[in-house]
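User: Quick sanity check before I run a bigger batch. Here is a single chain. Can you write out its predicted 3D structure?
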Amino acid sequence: MLEAAALLAAAAWYGFELLSGAPVLTFWGAVFTLVLLLAFSTWLFAVGHFLFRGYRWTRAAALVAQLFVLTIGFPTMTGGLAFQGLAMILPALAAIIFLFQKDVISYASRTGGSGDVL
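Assistant: Done. Predicted structure follows.
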């Protein structure tokens, strides 16, 4: 949920910069990037919400999100932005480790509906 909130804040900052006339290569490309940031943030909020409710499918979705963050974080860190890269890599690695702990696996075992927990 914290990653989703941070991504939403980044989207808000990106949208503000876009509206304030910051130079962009193509306007519609920047709008598309803003839409992607908002969509990914919404997806992460949904994953976080349903993970707290204990649904099984959220572990896979959260893992995919963390792998996406790692694929952006490593080039960012090696490209000269070490602090920003580490700010992406460290929480992603921590989330991946937490996703595979026995407590999380046993908690996130619902399959949907209002049926019994497996």
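The mean pLDDT is 86.

User: Great, the batch can go ahead then.
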